[in-house]
Amino acid sequence: MQFLKNLNINETNAGTSTGTNWISTNNHLDSFSPVDGKKIATVQITDEEAYKNVLQKAEDAFKVWRLLPAPKRGEIVRQMGEEFRRHKDDLGRLVSWEMGKSLQEGLGEVQEIIDICDFAVGLSRQLYGLTMHSERPNHRMYEQYHPIGIVGIITAFNFPAAVWGWNAMLAWVCGDVCVWKPSEKTPLTAVACQKIVEKVIKANNLPEGLSCLINGDRNVGEWMAADERIPLISATGSTRMGKEVGKVVAARLGRSLLELGGNNAIIITPNADLKLAIVGSVFGATGTTGQRCTTTRRLIIHSSVYEQFKEQLVSAFNQLKIGNPLEDGIHVGPLIDTHAVQLYSKAIEECKVQGGRFVVEGEVLSGSSYTSGCYVKPCIAEVDSQLPIVKTETFAPILYLMKYDHLEDAIALQNEVPQGLSSSIITTNMREMEAFLSAAGSDCGIANVNMGTSGAEIGGAFGGEKETGGGRESGSDAWKAYMRRQTSSINYGKDLPLAQGIKFDL
Ligand code: NAD
């Protein structure tokens, strides 16, 4: 395929890179496309020796990179953004082919990297600290932010490029170096991204170790979590993974930034614009085939509009076109692999056993357009909110409908799941909107009005509460997670007065 050639992806690819050198290892993992089920290429797995090598190079690079003025680091990130612009089409195609999301979403993912590069360039001149008035005469106090060191980035399969970009671009302008372990299900996208930044690193004679890539399954991630040389682990993936990584990092008093599972709801009130509600709900539930952390999994609908809305929703689901996500006009591509299909089928069975009633039935699709065995039909079930299955995240397009009569009950339903990532209300009523956004409203990291739960912009801090892990990435002041804060008090007088008026006479 031409896009693979353009991205310099071969049949067998080294999977360990220090930014300027690729290290060969013995074992490999295969990357399959969920679109047709065929192997795309292989990537070598990082072994312990290669890992040691990478960490040493990263430590060495940090000593150089942290001393480069932040705006100069921003200039490097600007050049990286330019390279991603140049490769947007090819990389977007690879993301779609390897992960299975639509081409529009694959291109959108690369656009997110470009956007975060632009954001990081501006940020490189705005890593502001504060100044404070001292209580002591002739004293000055201020705080400043310094680079923290090596940032270990562990990513999930569903955003195989953008989540790395959100982390790495900020970390670089902050003066850190990065070691990235992508999902074992999407290693080729990571190799392609590394080859893109490698050009900039070489062209600018930057230190080897600035941008490192390691590959493999959770074992390789476990090395990183336990590694005291990595002060910050930014891990994106399931809540199960986050609980394991968080424990290991905390045991060595390291810092973790966790971006974990979601179970996101839209509340549709009697004052909702139902046209908006339909678009937001259908895209939210079926975009990326239900494999976004922000996918809409629950609709909490006022009883006065419930039947009317359900009818429109069923009709919209029945019109969805499922197939090759690189073709025009297709709404829903495949799930990532056949294991994900099994989880989808199991959740549907469990939902039925627990009393859920399907108004659009689920189905694993077969036939010549669906040879990979990864294509499923998005489905809708009416449920009682207390069903255990409704409180878990199934990473597939299964949408649960529930009814409410009072807004407080709707907000309570929205909040009563263990996860706290994204939430929405569809209403034209200001009181309903403000109640949802108040301290007694949504308990999620993201609370939207008149739109769905998915599709965040890079300018805001992204992340969620409770079992979503509490981390914040991307925009706003999320950069502070990648730096260490230092408070400095300076005495420019001739006496040494102590704080709190304490006397210590010699
Ligand atoms: P996963 O947890 O199976 O794997 C994620 C990454 O963690 C992979 O690179 C994997 O190798 C690694 N890993 C797994 N166990 C580990 C361990 N014990 N120690 C170190 N590393 C380990 O998740 P997935 O199936 O790739 O992705 C889907 C999940 O990710 C969903 O739950 C989704 O909601 C979540 N997600 C969250 C966000 C967010 O920003 N909140 C974004 C994308 C995906």
SSE arrangement:
Layout: H1 2-6, E1 12-13, E2 16-17, E3 22-23, E4 28-32, E5 39-44, H2 48-65, H3 70-86, H4 88-99, H5 103-123, E6 131-132, E7 139-147, E8 150-154, H6 162-173, E9 177-181, H7 187-203, E10 211-213, H8 218-226, E11 232-236, H9 239-251, E12 255-259, E13 264-268, H10 274-286, E14 296-302, H11 303-318, H12 338-353, E15 357-360, E16 379-382, E17 398-404, H13 407-415, E18 419-420, E19 422-426, H14 430-437, E20 446-449, E21 461-462, E22 465-466, E23 473-474, E24 483-491
Helix pairs in contact: 3-5, 3-7, 4-5, 4-7, 5-6, 8-9, 10-11
Word description of this protein:
- With 506 residues, this protein is of the alpha/beta class.
- It has 2 domains: 2-23 and 41-260 and 469-486, Aldehyde Dehydrogenase, Chain A, domain 1 (3-Layer(aba) Sandwich), CATH 3.40.605.10; 264-449, Aldehyde Dehydrogenase, Chain A, domain 2.
- It is 37% helix and 21% strand.
- The protein has helices at residues 2-6, 48-65, 70-86, 88-99, 103-123, 162-173, 187-203, 218-226, 239-251, 274-286, 303-318, 338-353, 407-415, 430-437, and strands spanning 12-13, 16-17, 22-23, 28-32, 39-44, 131-132, 139-147, 150-154, 177-181, 211-213, 232-236, 255-259, 264-268, 296-302, 357-360, 379-382, 398-404, 419-420, 422-426, 446-449, 461-462, 465-466, 473-474, 483-491.
- Strands 15-16-17-14-13-19-20 form a 7-stranded mixed beta sheet, sandwiched between helices. A 5-stranded parallel beta sheet has the order 10-9-8-11-12, with helices on both faces.
- A hairpin with a 4-residue loop joins strand 2 and strand 3 (22-23).
- The longest helix has 21 residues, at 103-123.
- The chain is globular and about 80 Å long.
- The relative contact order is 0.13.
- Bound molecules: nicotinamide-adenine-dinucleotide (NAD).
- Residues 154-159, 181, 183-184, 217-218, 221-222, 225, 236-238, 241, 244-245, 259-262, 293, 393, 395, 421, 468 line the site of nicotinamide-adenine-dinucleotide (NAD).
